[in-house]
Design a protein that fits this description.
The chain has 152 residues and is of the alpha+beta class. The protein has one helix and nine strands. The chain has a four-stranded antiparallel β-sheet with strand order 6-5-8-9, with no helix packed on it.
Length: 152
């Protein structure tokens, strides 16, 4: 047996074990992130993909309708929402009978937290009456509805 050849084989084996451990780590991170309904961005760096020298995992917040404040309100309320990636967002207000009262957002938004102010008026500029209203956010396959109360 050649001692030099054995040393090279041992280094290849260690390098392969490192790659396997890194792959298990990456797969675990991907599965746990997907289970948490979040996006995982993996950046691999190195001279060439083999051998992989570093892996960086960056989490982004999921798309969500965060709520409105104040609630109950008079005369205005701010509705906060979070967008994951550049997305087309639609936010509409509905009365207790399910009739659309106002379209607040119907546009593309970049990733991040945003807010829109509702002044308690319908699409025709008329004041709505006191009571409970629902606001619904839609973007892609994401849909979420929350309630708010206007008091006059």
């Amino acid at each position: 047996m050649n001692l030099f050849h054995d040393e090279i084989e041992t280094k290849k084996e260690v390098n392969m074990n490192t790659k396997i451990i890194l792959m298990i780590f990456l797969l675990t991170a991907i599965v746990s992130t997907l289970c948490a309904n979040q996006t995982l961005i993996i950046q691999l760096t190195g001279e060439a993909i083999p051998p992989i020298l570093e892996a960086e995992i960056v989490e982004t917040k999921p798309t969500s309708l965060l709520g409105n404040f104040p609630n109950p309100f008079n005369p205005t309320t701010s509705i906060r929402f979070e967008v994951q990636g550049s997305r087309f967002v639609n936010i509409e207000v509905y009365n207790i009978r399910g009739q659309r009262v106002r379209t607040l957002v119907n546009d593309v938004y970049q990733a991040g937290e945003h807010f829109v102010v509702w002044n308690g008026k319908d699409d025709n500029g008329q004041d709505v009456s006191s009571g409970m209203y629902f606001y619904k956010m839609q973007t892609g396959d994401f849909v979420q509805t929350k309630r708010m109360v206007i008091i006059k």
